[in-house]
Amino acid sequence: MAALAPLSSLPSLWAAAAADDPSTVPAGQLITAAVVGIAVIVALISWVKLHPFLALTLGALATGLVAGMPVGDAVTSFTSGVGSTMGGVGVLIALGAIYGKLLADSGGADRVVDTLVDRATPRTLPWIMGFIGAIIGLPMFFEVGLVLLVPVIILVARRSRLPLMRIAIPTLAGLSAMHGLVPPHPGPLAAIDALNANLGLTLAFGVIVAIPAVIISGPLFSRLAARWVDVPVPDLFVSAEDAGRTQTRRPSFGATLASILLPVALMLVKAVADIVAPDSTDVWKSVLDFLGTPVIALLIAVIAGFFILGRGAGFDRAQLNATVGSSLGPIAGILLIVGAGGGFKQVLVDTGIGQVIADLVAGSSISVLVLAWLVAVVIRVATGSATVATITAAGILQPLTDTLNAPMTALLVLAIGSGSVFLSHVNDAGFWLIKEYLGLSIPQTLKSWTVLECLISVTGLGGVLVLSLFVGA
């Protein structure tokens, strides 16, 4: 029997096997590497309870080593992926966090909510709350929007005397659908960056897909959820002061709504211009391309927010600076997770794993959109993280974009996003936030929040497949 090679020689043996060309590594080894990497990430997050940033880092390095990359090359591949992702997505996440904090601190979010609720009837109130969740969810991370809207959910349910689920479910549906399907949220942004999708098209399609998803999982499902989960309104936020509404001066409803929709409008206008005149070199097209660039659009929204929201609330320069400063700390973890996810994606690309999977898919009859949804579902259920599921699935499926046109690539992002919100359960932090805020038991949370997430996911996939009938190449 031949002597076993010492452990210290394994990197050089792996390097020789690869011969600096991923295509020389057996497909079985590459698939095994992908399975091992994902298994490491899942095990570390689900069982060891390790932070996703560290889990993604270790999973990426394990993938590279099993796939035959030398240690140095695996590290280089990972760090280059982190850098490119942070450069493309990190700035957008930071700007979105600043704007979301400004919207909350100025009282602008309260102004929008109060104005809409005051004009609602008991029959239309669940629909209004779904709309509020979607509007507030556009610029905010899910957790931020949840913390902001929980007092509103409880106060509205108490004041209207409607069942808690009739108010909570539509609001949460709006928040979650925006989080999973519509940029500038971290998951969709990371997938757009990884798949080189058109942000404007993805944004437009995302809104189209999100509308039926919110309706079905929100106002319609809330009727059933109210019967399944008949719980009293939590004894919280008895007064406006208890709810934190101490802001005596707030921006107007119209100004706040215009501020929220400003970056969305800029990006959509650019997308329309790209469709109408894709090859135009006219000045107007250049201006729209500049203003609709995501970083510029969000930067304009932040600067406009200083005047519309900040000045509307009577903030001075010190208060504005305090708002900006306090908005950046909480997103450090999100930035690290997104960056590490980009690093993992780059390892998958550099080893050729993604191409092997793409070749296998090319010979199958399954729709690439359904496949993308299934991959994201598996990772989401295993890890409990929509962001990890989105980033990992995008990395695996990245080679498929070579054969897709721009609209289909945008739909691929949305298929992944739809899968990333499927079946929230006990390994998802959002599950516990909902449970504790609304005073539910675990079975009640499963029958309400978990079912809501599944409905968004399945409806989102359905919307993506319908759109693909019209834009597929």
Q: Care to count the β-strands?
A: 0
Q: Tell me the Rg in angstroms.
A: 23 Å
Nearest-integer average pLDDT: 81
pLDDT below 50 for ≥5 consecutive residues: which ranges?
Answer: 1-20, 237-245
Distance between the termini: 56 Å
Using the alpha-carbon principal axes, give the shape. Answer: globular
**Whole-number count of domains:** 1
Summarize the structure.
55% of the residues are buried. The model is unreliable at 1-20 and 237-245 (pLDDT under 50). The chain has 21 helices and no strands.
Q: What structural keywords apply?
A:
single chain, 473 residues, mainly alpha, 0% strand, globular, disordered N terminus
Question: Can you tell me about this structure?
Answer:
The chain has one domain. The protein starts with 9 loop residues before the first helix and ends with a helix. It has 21 helices and no strands. With 473 residues, it is mainly alpha-helical.
Write the layout of secondary structure elements.
Layout: H1 10-18, H2 27-46, H3 52-66, H4 71-105, H5 108-118, H6 125-137, H7 142-160, H8 164-181, H9 186-195, H10 199-228, H11 253-276, H12 283-292, H13 294-311, H14 317-328, H15 332-351, H16 353-362, H17 368-383, H18 386-397, H19 406-420, H20 429-438, H21 442-471
